[in-house]
Amino acid sequence: MEATQAMVENGAISADLRRELVSVADQYSISPVEALVLARRVDPAVVARAIATCAHVPLWLKWPPMAISRATRHRLPAELAYEHRVVPLEQDADGDLTVAMADPLDDEACREVEFFAGSRIIRLTVPVTLASGGVFAFYGLETPFLSMWRKLAEIGDHPYALAAST
């Protein structure tokens, strides 16, 4: 299940808004959650808190993260981190990988991350801003969301300014 669908089911957003977000997301190659943030609908931390509640996954707002070892970072290919807005944070003694994810409800993303990591993952929910920023900081890849976020900041507009009807 995708995060905005869970938010509809929990009454956080309407089904009509979700359809609009999905349409915008498809048009701009971003996720519906990223569209929600860019559409000036709600603060990224508020969205992350709602997702964390729906997913029963801890919310993680510490940024920048602790030092991430090269070995941990290389547990996930850059393309996978980019596609799913996921950043590996640490590996525990059992080999499980703790990851920061914008959408820990995305079952496909979780399966792919576990497959490539070769172990179980421990999910933490982070705002889309931190997930995209982490992908850029640790893999050098700028997501479409981060590019839009930066452009809005450059023109002096509040980072939530992309109208969902665009």
Quick rundown:
The protein is mainly alpha-helical. 51% of the residues lie in helices and 10% in strands.
Query: Would you identify the CATH architecture of the largest domain?
Result: 2-Layer Sandwich
Compressed to H and E, one letter per element, the order equals: HHHHHHEEHEHH
Helix share, percent: 40-55%
- The CATH homologous superfamily of the largest domain corresponds to Type II secretion system, protein E, N-terminal domain
CATH class placement of the largest domain:
Alpha Beta
Amino-to-carboxy terminus distance: 26 Å
Briefly note the structural class of the backbone.
mainly alpha
Instruction: Please tally the helical runs, counting DSSP H or I stretches of 4 or more residues.
Output: 9
> Which descriptor suits the 3D outline?
globular
Strand order of the largest sheet: 1-2-3
Number of structural domains: 2
Average pLDDT over all residues: 86
Q: Tell me the Rg in angstroms.
A: 15 Å
CATH topology of the largest domain: GMP Synthetase, Chain A, domain 3
Number of E-type strands? 3
Low-confidence stretches: 160-166
